[in-house]
Task: structure prediction
Amino acid sequence: MANERFGRLVRGMVNAVAAFDGRQAVFVEEEIGALLGLAPTTIQGYKQGRVPEGWRPIEVLAEFGVRRAHLGRAWLQQLLDSVRYYDTQRLIDRLAPAPAAAPRPPRASDNLPAPTYSRFIMRPDAYQQVVEGLGQRSALLVIVGMGGVGKTSLALEVAKRCVGPGGPPAQGAPPPAFDAAVWVSGHDQPGPLALAHVLDAAALTLGFPGLTRLGLRERQHEVEQLLRQQRALIIADGFETSTDPALLGWLLRLPEPSKAIITTRLYRREFQRGAWLVELDGMGEAEADELIAQAARRLKLAAPAPEAARHLREVSGGNPKAIDLALGHARHTGQPLAKSLDALLLPQGELLDELFAQSWGLLTPGERAILVAAALFVGSAPPEALADVAGEACPSFGPALQKLADLSLIEIALAAPPEGGARYGLHPLTRSFVDARLPAYGDLDRAARERWLGWCLALAREAGGYAIDDLGRLDRLDPEEPTLFAAVGWAMGQGRHAEAIALIQALEFYYYVRALWGKKLDLHRWYIDAARALGDTGQEIAALALHIQLLSQQGRMGEAAQHLPRLHALAEAGPLGGEARFSYQHTLGVYHLADDDRSAARRCWEHLLATDAPMPGHMRAGAHHWLARCLAAGGDPQLARGHYAAALEIAREQGLGRLVARNQLGLAMLEIAAGELDDAELRLGECRQLTRQGDWEQGARLLWAEARLAARRGARAEAAAQYGQAHALLERMGLARESAEVGAEMAGLSLGL
Result:
């Protein structure tokens, strides 16, 4: 007798794999048959409900469904129950382990930069002073010392060891463990380091990008709550750039159990209000000798004679940057080290300036062009970017870059995966020196700035845009995001409104997918101002539309409403083209739906779909999708299904993977509500395959749907875990309405409703 339930589950699994692979089901049957050593006709019999003899075919089918069809625990449970498998839970736990009960932060627990040193030279006394300070009740530890003395390296090494294994153990007590480390550098900001910069870095690193949209006071309160819930270490490097008194006051009062480290060249009397002070001087004899030997090996120099090494220690005062510069200078002048040092018997305050000046004097125009180019990038840049911005002034780029590294004028850091490779940046002292030289090289600076802006535009257009067909290309923007954001601000400051708009249009979807709402709202404001300055009605409508939509989705209806009169006035001023008309009507629909006026929202999308005017496919799919969401919320599931299906068809035709996933998700939600659980499971399988890890919003909605499916099937523990993950993600993004809905469903699950 045929087992109809078993046959339906196998049939759905085979069809899912065929759909994912884009091939006929018969080839999938052949693949399964090969795994079992059986003819494809036998697999076809399984699809008709013929249950195999023995447990091995069942186990192979189960694993094939999980691995190749991306089916989850719910499908697996149904399959094994249909044949009364003898050890169901063990096989489920092996093939599809349950998610952790507590949601994991979707971002890394630290944002520490890659070190620019190949091997950290331990300075035991200073290291132990920092470790001891972190063990005190004081919230703030200050590392103060002159430029180039190694403050940043010491703070970075301690931080890395606080959040994970960071190298060979040092003498004395190990540093205390922290759950997270937040790094923010005053040298990587477009202006002075401020409290807002540190709060944003904390919110993003701890996995709550939604907080960046809040006002400063509310943002500060929310970040403080996060710092009370976990042991986080905040590092503010280059604190001497800060002119914000609120930042120092906040760090001094940081809530337990979290702590902060700042590095600074300047001592402030306010440090006496409770900070633990570590004064970092030059390296001791053993430490300096180790650095000298290491640098000599890197530069392929003969090891300095003991007398020359002693002389270098004395002249440099043990300053690591001065030692590197002096050895690099000796390497490229060919002078004996002792002779080079005779010209450097200067007070320490003047020594570094003299070393930089001597190194600058050794550079060709092309090599100087590379330094000027590096000064334009925030943090660091890949070598090909520096070559593009340096331009034709440097035909021998590779040797020039090596010479700059030898002279310690440029620093090398390995990029994090998946990008990998080397990146190049400037030490803060080098950056200050180059900036001071630029007025005398105005033409070089202006030409480099133009090429830099062109490079930013080219990258943003190539890797950014409305990437719903290939979200993976957005990964290329991750390491360059700070520079690209700075480029928009620079273009606005220079009145380059057309270039600013081009950058914003290429970047705003990236900020949406990455849930960087605070910066996305900043882009919108720049977009509005730039379009208004150009008198471009279409662009201003597009800018206002983006701004109102995001504010509405975040539940900030009062702020969104403030922009509606201007949007209406622009729309009424003249006939709108296809894209502008879509932006206008779609924005009104999103606003009304967020404001619970479903009738008004429905009319907006129905009006869009009723016209015969040409409209890009993704916009027509978007209108169907949002109308379906509106209808589903208003209690009309059958009509909603039709519009989800129409959107899905357009998305498939145009290869828009993210839109395919969104509409499969919408249909799955309706099928779960109707009790069509197997069909919903198949749709969610495709959605899982198409949802990328960095897509926060889509990931949250997928978890929400999977939680509903698990709850309907009685898998309460699995549903609770998925509800918790979805709720955490939506809360972190600041999507208050959806977060509240998930919270209500979680509460209902716990009460057995």
